Amino acid sequence: MKRREFLKSSVVVGTAGVLLDACTPPGSEQIIPILIPEEQFIPGVEEFHATLCTECPGGCGLLSRKIDGRLVKVEGNPAHPISQGGSCARGQALPQVMYHPDRLASPLVREGARGEGRWTEISWDDALERLATELSSLDGPTSLAFLTGQLRGHRATLVERFAAAFGGAHRWAHEPFGDSTVRRAHALAVGRDALPAHDLEHANYVVTFGAALVEASRSPVRFGRGLGHLRRGRPGQRGKLVAVGPHLSVTAARADEWLPARPGSDAALALGFAHVLVRDGRHDERFVTDRATGFDAFRERLLSDYSPETVAGATGVAAEQIERVAHEMADYGPTLAVAGDAAVAGSTGLATALAVTHLNALLGAFDREGGVRFDPPPPFAPWPELPVLAAPPESETEADAAAAAAAPRPLVEVLADPPADVSALLVSGANPFYTLPAAAGVADLFAGVPFVAAFASFADETTRWADLILPEPTTFERFDDDVPAPGVGRAVASLSGPVFVRPLHDTRSMPDVLLQVGQRLGDDMSAALPWDSYEDALQDAWAGLHDAQRGSVVESTAGRFWRSAIESGGWWDAAALEDAAPVEFGTPDGRYQFDIAALTTGGGLAATTTDRPFLLHVYPSLAFGDGRSAHLPFLQELADPMTGVRWGSVVEVSHAAAEEHGLVDGDAVVVASAQGELQARVRVVPGLRPEVVAIAAGQGHTDYGRYATDRGANPLALLAPPDPADGAELALVGTAVSLRKIDA
User: Fold this and answer.
1) Number of neighbours of residue 532 by Cβ within 10 angstroms
2) How far is C-alpha 136 from the chain's CA centre?
3) In this structure, what is the dihedral angle of CA atoms 53, 54, 58, 62, given to the nearest 10 degrees?
4) How far is residue 317's CA from residue 322's CA, in Å, rounded to a whole number?
5) Level-2 CATH architecture, domain 197-373
6) Quick one: which of 51, 280, 383, 739 has the fewest CB in 10 Å?
């Protein structure tokens, strides 16, 4: 008898008399792996397994630490190009996801009316049969819609393939702090719908327009390390960081200079800097002459509309500061400009993202150390082509139109013009009932869909309105891959496999469920989804990296390569950033486009009213991001570095506004907008424009486990419904609000 089998029998005998394995109490199979390590584990000896962090879009590689078969800690993977051994607070809290008491442990089917939160556990066979029956009974492929967050890696590819194989199901996307606007700006200017890699390590001067680089934006570990190198990584040389925005964020607090521009005026300020560069001949003449189109019209617009004096009136930043900072950009380069978060949301979001992209072009940031590059794609092997479902495109225009039609449609557009034929909705990685205001119409959209199935590891505000919940395993219990963006200027592909022999609960990953349902939906779907598991699908794709015979992992066989890639945490090109090929612009003429049509900065600035004299500024929380990490008690316990708040919310008010309205620290107030109201305590802060009040996102959940439910306030519920014409998910800054003190 093996040692594990003996100990297992001993535990059962010691707790319940003489019992056979077939008669063990329910749940014993889940308890035993925790009490008794797997056969290959040596008691007291730690093991490390490479895995991925999924708490934010950064795509960091991690090392999970196990002792006696139990996950006890995670650290950054020192070999991974993004994390390089570092991890943020959200990454450090990941073990609590694994052992969280509120995890979904088995499939659930709704009992009673939607929204009541009454569920019955069912088996996976029953769940898959219910899902397959609902999908097979739909009246045409457009009766199905798939709503996700901004998926990456082959998860995104598999969802796209499933929708296409179904005949063209709708694909919708929603990410409240996403970078769709920044990608749109790059599509207009350089013909690439992608986030670039910023070479912060070799820059001397960085200007951030709203992007919370240090605490929460995109890739905090990668940006934090880059800014640290900018400051102290080169002996005798110290770079400068300038932060633009109405609120003193953690990034702004760490900056050498903070420019508190009015909300919504970031585009005008970026163009003001550009005006000075062009007026004084300090821009990169070679780039605009040899590699760009449309510069003459752009220059005329700059010189006529964006003088420092004009921009000073719009932004509240002194003309002398605008002149000085612009000259410093030219004098102390390489210089980088980065835009993100609230600055690229709302009616001026695209203008801001495009203005910052043009500013980088004028500074010669493309194809230069300390500049901007785009990561080359990893050489994955393509999956088998799908059967031709329609006539192939006859021209590039038709091909572009077909690609645009296949791309996910922003949820805000769907809410403005909901399709009438959707009878089934699949949801994964999105929580719009929490992240969108009620006036956006999410409840009406869901109410009009007869069947909703949600993939999730935890119940939340959106799963409450589903008919079927399909529980997902954690990142430590499944196969996953990722292509991090923004990256580091070279091809990077992250990979992780299960750290445990089997999941802690009766869960299955969303890609595996799609493959299993596909086998039940007929021969066409089976042929389009030919893999027995998502692991098999990933192995087929990653075989292309093995065939390349280059990079960080090179092995003699595909099987050896797969095992080595999992052990390493992925594959990445060994080429350094300075060895990368020049940026190739994907525009029709192959040149940078100084587009001016989208630079509509006038008329979009936020305004207050007599009844609502403040502008609300919502920013991502360092601990919770957009709220998806609020269920973890480690992060609830983490004090915000700027306000000191834990386990709750505060509304930040400037000293001038507090004095004018008779407010002091700790006062309870009602913050009200046209969409609703919330209650919070006042925190008087020095780093805030007087017309602005600021609240961190992440708290105020109504259904997200015992540690997050009914804790703090959700400022996203106060925002004006998003305008689909803006192309942004939410207008995170500019909603007019009032403050009313609650008498004790």
Assistant:
1) 11
2) 32
3) 10
4) 7
5) 3-Layer(aba) Sandwich (3.40)
6) 280
Express each pLDDT in 87-120 by its tens digit. Answer: 999 999 999 999 999 999 999 999 999 999 899 9
The pLDDT assigned to 57 comes to 85
| Separation of alpha carbons 658 and 686, rounded Å | 11
Asked whether residue 16 carries a pLDDT value surpassing 50, the answer given is no
Task: Give CA 192 to chain center in angstroms.
Answer: 19
Query: How many angstroms separate the CA atoms of 342 and 716, rounded?
Result: 12
* Cα–Cα distance measured from residue 507 to residue 472, given in angstroms and rounded to the nearest whole number: 5
Residue among 663, 143, 118, 34 at smallest CA distance from 422: 143
Helix, strand, or coil here: 711?
Answer: coil
Write out pLDDT tens, residues 558-606: 999 999 999 999 999 976 555 556 778 999 999 999 999 888 754 455 5
In CATH, 614-741 is 1.20.1510.10: no
The C-alpha angle 635, 636, 640, rounded to 5 degrees, equals: 80
Of 31, 33, 63, 90, nearest in space to 569 by CA = 63
Q: Report the half-sphere exposure of 670 (CA within 13 A, side-chain side).
A: 9
Q: Which residues contact 248 (CB under 8 A, 6 or more apart)?
A: 258, 260, 642, 685, 686, 687, 688
**Eight-state DSSP code of residue 80:** S
Supply φ then ψ for residue 30, to 5 degrees: -90, -25
Backbone φ and ψ for 340, nearest 5 degrees, come out as -175, 175
CB 259 within 8 A of CB 325: yes
Question: How far apart, in whole angstroms, are the C-alpha atoms of residue 712 and residue 621?
Answer: 13
pLDDT tens for residues 458-508?
999 999 999 999 999 999 999 999 999 888 888 999 999 999 988 999 999
Separation between Cα atoms, residue 194 and residue 182, nearest integer Å = 8
CB burial of 211-226 (b: ≥16 within 10 Å; e: otherwise) equals bbbbbbbbbbbbbbbb
Q: In sequence order, what are the residues at sequence separation of 6 or more whose Cβ sits closer than 8 angstroms to the Cβ of residue 534?
A: 158, 478, 479, 509, 511, 512, 515
Strand order in the sheet with 492-496: 480-482, 492-496, 570-572
Q: What is the DSSP string of 406-475?
A: HSPEEHHHHHHS--S---EEEEES--HHHHS-GGG-HHHHHHT-SEEEEEESB--TTGGG-SEEEEPPPG
For residue 317, give the DSSP letter: -
**Cα dihedral 654, 659, 663, 665 sign:** positive
CB distance 426 to 463 below 8 Å: no
Q: Is 575 exposed, middle or buried (0-12, 13-18, 19+ CB in 10 A)?
A: middle
- State the Cα torsion 12-13-17-18 to the nearest 10°: 100
**3-98: CATH number:** 2.20.25.90
Q: How would you class 742 by CB atoms within 10 Å of its CB: exposed for 0-12, middle for 13-18, buried for 19 or more?
A: exposed
Residue 503 burial (C-beta neighbours within 10 Å; 0-12, 13-18, 19+): buried
Q: What is the dihedral of CA 233, 239, 244, 247, to 10 degrees?
A: 50
Query: What dihedral angle (degrees, nearest 10) is formed by the CA atoms of 130, 131, 132, 133?
Result: 50
> Which residues, 6+ apart, have CB-to-CB distance to 699 below 8 Å?
621, 624, 627, 630, 648, 649, 708, 711, 712, 713, 714
Judge whether 124 and 132 are in contact, CB under 8 Å: no
- E strand or H helix at 493: strand 492-496
Residue given tokens 């609300």 in the structure block: 616
Q: Where are the domains of the chain?
A: 3-98, 108-177+378-475+504-531, 197-373, 614-741
Distance CA 689, CA 261 (A): 8
Collapsing DSSP to helix, strand or coil, 302 comes out as helix
- The fold of 108-177+378-475+504-531 is Rossmann fold (3.40.50)
Q: What confidence tier does 420 reach under pLDDT thresholds 50, 70, 90? A: confident
